[in-house]
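Task card 7
Instruction: Convert sequence to structure tokens.
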Amino acid sequence: MSSHKFATLRYTALRLGLFVACFAVVWALAYFRIIPLAVGASNTVWMLLLAIVISAPLSFVLLRKQRDAMSEQIVAKVDRQRERIAANAGQEDDLV
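Output:
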């Protein structure tokens, strides 16, 4: 269970890293004029959007294990909260 302790943080960091890597590749392609530049100051916005579009499906495929571990961590926390709520509701019913 300790390997899943920081699953959400690990997934988020890897997802951000993948986005930064995609942005760096898009920036390099635009710098060397392999892909066309946008008009005026919108170039950065278009590069960010292109990096998001590229990194989203890559993260879906490449980060499957980390996403599953994060999901298990979240489900465990939700189950514990449900148990606490049920226990508190049971105590309130006993008082009435």
